[in-house]
Write a structure and sequence with these properties.
The chain is about 55% helix and about 10% strand. Strands 1, 2, 3, 4, 5, 6 and 7 form a 7-stranded antiparallel β-sheet that branches. The chain has 16 helices and 7 strands.
Length: about 400
């Protein structure tokens, strides 16, 4: 175990010269009767509760040009992991003592934090990918049939990887929304009439689709589940805490033993619930009405996911146009196809079909640019509508350029 700090005193901002040399620095440290600094010609030690740690205090120089700043580069080290608790307390005590005297502290090295980061990362990786696995399978079962015909004339596109690819682009904190965020389905008057005509009256069971519920409650809840809905509802709260700890690990913040133990405890609560449901998804079957409800309400659940659906559809449109463009102009020397206005403008001058569809294509390109620049400007309804428009456009393109798809 080793920790190294750069401790800085700016004595121009102090009423008294609290720390102007190593002697005054040591006095601050030894103000706790349990702490003793032992100087030696061979190797210095700092002693806490009779436990000896290697100790260095170097480079305590004065920077007069920048206003009487005093720098203390200290390092504390131990080869005995069994005294980690005492080691951690000593470090905390020194940092707090220096901060109380007005010092600023830069952490140069913290092997304890490194150890717990290395232990935490695999756990975070596994729980994140377990959640993505569950979402990927649910998306394939629920809305996979409406993600468009992903076949191209030259190759088969792996639907799993396209969906998988976008879900792997979703931010960690947004992942549970698709399953656990509640939403109300808009009342469909035609369906209401159908219910009345069929039964003569409406019962509560008929209105279950319109309740404020999550997709988990609507489609994944099973009376034979080991875990109750109350356990499931807590996942969102657990996930937020896991996200906070994940950020500390990902952004190189210091984490300690308590952080790591909290992470383990949170993951132990979430993981078995997700694992159980991943297995049961293999036998999940959804009616067409249920699939349409999920797809129609994606925007209410997660705007990032709705954006992802648009990006996937836009990518397929771009591939479809490129295939047709290269086929039509296969024997001519033309500019390389790119999904931008300049290329489409040149194409429409010699192609009446593209000229007819020009305004829609230009708008779809514009929406893609808006997503890249500032997606907050876009409304959920716009994204849903343009995604559908793009799908319909691809159908018209394939019908018009049918020779490409023979």
């Amino acid at each position: 175990m080793k920790c190294e700090y750069l401790i800085i005193f700016d004595n121009q901002n102090q009423r008294e010269n609290y720390c102007i040399n190593e002697h005054t620095f040591n006095n601050i440290v030894e103000s706790n009767s349990d702490v003793i600094i032992e100087k030696s010609s061979v190797e210095d030690h700092i002693i806490y509760k009779d436990i000896r740690f290697k100790y260095k205090n170097q480079n305590n120089f004065v920077d007069k040009e920048k206003g009487e700043k005093y720098y203390f580069n200290i390092a504390i080290e131990s080869e005995d992991d069994k005294v980690e608790e005492e080691f951690t307390y000593l470090l905390s005590y020194i940092k707090n003592s220096m901060i109380q005297k007005g010092a600023k502290i830069e952490v140069l090295w913290d092997s304890i934090s490194l150890k717990y980061c290395e232990k935490a990362y695999p756990l975070i990786y596994k729980i994140e990918n377990l959640m993505r696995k569950l979402l990927t399978k649910f998306m394939l079962i629920s809305v996979g049939h409406t993600w468009g015909d992903l076949d191209t004339p030259t190759q088969k596109v792996n639907k799993d990887r396209i969906i998988d690819g976008y879900l792997y682009g979703l931010d960690f904190k947004d992942l549970p929304d698709l399953l656990f965020k509640k939403y109300s389905v808009k009342i469909d008057h035609e369906k209401m009439k159908e219910l009345i005509n069929r039964n003569g009256k409406i019962v509560l069971e008929d209105l279950s689709d319109f309740e404020n519920k999550s997709n988990w409650e609507r489609y994944l809840l099973d009376k034979h589940d080991k875990y109750s809905m109350n356990d499931v509802r807590k996942i969102m709260g657990y996930w937020e805490k896991i996200y906070d700890l994940r950020c500390k690990v990902a952004h190189n913040f210091l984490i300690n033993k308590n952080d790591y133990e909290q992470l383990v405890e949170l993951i132990d609560k979430v993981q078995p619930i997700l694992e159980e449901k991943v297995l049961k998804l293999d036998v999940l079957k959804l009616e067409r009405d249920s699939k349409e409800i999920i797809e129609d309400n994606i925007g209410l659940i997660s705007k990032p996911l709705l954006i992802g659906l648009y990006i996937i559809e836009y990518t397929q449109l771009s591939k479809t146009l490129e295939q047709c463009y290269n086929y039509v102009y296969s024997n001519e020397s033309i500019i390389e196809f790119k999904m931008n206005e300049d290329v489409i403008k040149k194409w429409k001058k010699v192609d009446t079909f593209i000229e007819k569809e020009w305004h829609l294509i230009a708008m779809l390109i514009y929406i893609k640019i808006q997503i890249e620049e500032n997606s907050e400007r876009l409304k959920e309804e716009e994204l849903k509508q343009y995604e559908k428009d793009s799908k319909n456009l691809r159908k018209r393109i394939k019908k018009h350029y049918k020779d490409v798809y023979i």
